Amino acid sequence: MKRLLIATNNFGKVRELKSILGVVRLKLCTPADLGLALDVAETGQTYAENASLKAIAFAQASGLITLGDDSGLEVEALSGAPGVYSARYAGPGATDADRRAKVMHELRHVPAPRPARFRCALAVAQPTGAVRLFEGVCEGEIILEERGTNGFGYDPIFYFPPHRRTMAELPSEVKNHLSHRGRAAQAALPYLIELLDSAG
Questions:
Q1: Cis peptide bond N-terminal to 113, omega within 30
Q2: pLDDT by residue (tens digit) across 124-149?
Q3: What CATH number does residue 79 fall under?
Q4: Which helix (H) or strand (E) holds 179?
Q5: Global confidence as pTM
Q6: Which residues are part of the catalytic machinery?
C-alpha cells in the first residue's frame, strides 16, 4: 500500500486529515510512526511558506510524498490577527485554552457579530523538493464563550452561522467537509491521487 506522510504530530490535525483522505487507498504516516524528530522552524511570513517548509523538509528526510499544512485564525476586529502566529499567539508554552482566552479577552468590547475566518494552506511535497500548494478558507464569527468538544485550537469559539454551531459542536463528517483544512485537502485530493499513482 502506498504511503503518504503527514508532516505533523498534532493529533487533531492527523485525525482530521485521516478522515478526509480516507477515501484514498493509502497508508497515512506521521513523523512519529517513522521515528522522525525534525524540528522545522516556521519562519515563513505566510501560511503557504510555512506549509512548504514543513512538507519539503519531511519529504526529503523520509523519501515519501508528504503533506504539510499551516493554518490560522484571522479576526477582522484584530486586523487579521492572530493569523500566521495563531499557534504562538499567547506566548511559549501556552495551551489552546490560553490562546482562546486571549482572543476572547481582546474582543470583549467588540459587539457581535465578530467576523473571522479560518485559512489553511496545504503543501504537497515530493522528495525531489517539488511542491504544490492548495488553500481552503472557512468564514464565520467569534463568540465569547466556549462551546463544544469535537475540535481543537480555536474551534470552540469559532461560530459557523449556517449551522448555528461552533466548529467544535459540529459532527466530524460535517466539520471535515466545510472546514478550512477540509476544503484544502479536498482541493488537493485529485493531485494526490495522480501523484501517488505515478509514483507506482
A1: yes
A2: 999 998 999 999 999 999 999 999 99
A3: 3.90.950.10
A4: none
A5: 0.89
A6: 70
